[in-house]
Design a protein that fits this description.
5 strands; alpha/beta; Rossmann fold; five-stranded parallel sheet; single chain
Length: 212
């Protein structure tokens, strides 16, 4: 009996340690999903990770999958207010995205900036779903980062249901490494934020986020 207990005491921690690399890898790779492209009413660039998301949207637009590109707007945060008080101008993120789109051949009249100011993914999804519904429904192609794709799909399903369709795609040039995310701070923070955001969504958004 004593030998069995000793053997179990050795094997159990060893088994747990053996599972750690798999669990770490899965925590990153599970976040990354991508839908098959289909014709859509618009390509939507969610806020964040300039210029990669806008670059991907320009590529999708250039292949004829949609005839419009929609940009979401970010909210006004404490640092923006402080800069405004100092009379220092900082162009909002969607302005840079629009410049990227135009530089890559998207006509200005094909770019639409959605009017809502958004502070998180849920706000963006509501804004996009509202614009799509106002336009008569249908389908949009939503461009985001690799690590953010799973959460966008979960939030879309939670807020828009099945009445509107979102094809979720990630930016091809996004440097996020899902199999090695723990090796740099930026990727580790992204994974932590995404899992927190997913838990918050599944719980019904009890915590109101001020950031993406």
């Amino acid at each position: 009996m004593r030998r069995r207990r000793l053997l179990a005491a050795i094997l159990l921690p060893a088994a747990v340690l053996a599972c750690v690399p798999f669990a770490l890898t899965a925590a990153g790779t599970w976040l990354v999903v991508e839908d098959r492209l289909q014709p859509a009413r618009s390509v939507v660039v969610l806020g964040g990770q300039i210029p990669f998301r806008a670059m991907e949207a320009a590529a999708v637009y250039g292949k004829g999958w949609a005839h419009e590109v929609w940009l979401t707007q970010g909210g006004a945060f404490a640092e923006d207010v402080a800069l405004a008080r100092l009379a220092i101008d900082r162009p909002p993120e969607h302005v840079y995205s629009q410049r990227v789109l135009e530089r890559l051949g998207v006509p200005r009249d094909a770019i639409r900036v959605l009017p809502e100011r958004n502070v998180n993914t849920a706000d963006e999804v509501r804004a996009v779903a509202g614009a799509l519904e106002a336009a008569g429904g249908g389908r949009v192609i939503v461009i985001t980062s690799k690590y953010h794709t799973r959460r966008v799909k979960v939030v879309w399903r939670a807020l828009a249901g099945n009445r509107l369709e979102a094809i979720v795609r990630f930016a091809a040039d996004d440097p996020f490494e899902p199999r090695r995310w723990w090796r740099n701070t930026a990727d580790a923070l992204s994974v932590s934020r995404e899992w927190f955001g997913l838990l918050n969504t599944w719980a019904g958004f009890p915590i109101k986020s001020e950031r993406w």
